[in-house]
Amino acid sequence: MATSIKLPEDLKKRVARVVKDTEQSAHAFMVEAIRQETDRAEKRRAFVADAYAARADFGKSGKGYALAEVKAHYRAKLQGRRTRKLKLRSWPR
After folding, report:
1. Residue 91 — φ and ψ, nearest 5°?
2. What span, in angstroms and rounded, lies between the C-alpha atoms of 19 and 55?
3. Do residues 86 and 73 make contact, with C-beta atoms less than 8 angstroms apart?
4. How would residue 2 be classed by pLDDT, with cut points 50, 70 and 90?
5. CA–CA separation, 25 and 79 (whole Å)
6. 3-state secondary structure the chain
7. pTM score, two decimals?
8. In which band, very low, low, confident or very high, does the pLDDT at 92 lie, cut at 50, 70 and 90?
9. At how many degrees (to 10) do helices 26-61 and 9-19 cross?
10. Maximum separation of any 2 CA atoms in the chain, in Å
């Protein structure tokens, strides 16, 4: 599907400078830039949706993990130490 996009003159010049002396055309550069930004936006949207779902779950159950314990757990894991399973706690609402 063909799409037309009007770029400001200064942006066209910047793209041309970036792709000069490379194997990539300005068109390929712009397609890749749009693909990367679309991927990033989709991932961010999914991340935010997951956060809202987790918040709703917490609101229903009132159960969660203490941040300090989570940090200590993963710090130990990264250092190769064995850790205990984290305790799910009830939090006041």
Report:
1. -115, 145
2. 45
3. yes
4. confident
5. 45
6. CCCCCCCCHHHHHHHHHHHCCCCCCHHHHHHHHHHHHHHHHHHHHHHHHHHHHHHHHHHHHCEECCHHHHHHHHHHHHCCCCCCCCCCEECCC
7. 0.69
8. confident
9. 100
10. 62
* Token digits of residue 3: 């799409």
The dihedral of CA 46, 49, 53, 54: what is its sign?
Answer: positive
Is 43's pLDDT higher than 90? yes
Residue found by looking up tokens 């203490």 in the block: 66
Residue 5 phi, psi dihedral angles, 5° rounding: -135, 130
User: Encoding tokens for residue 27?
Assistant: 């068109």
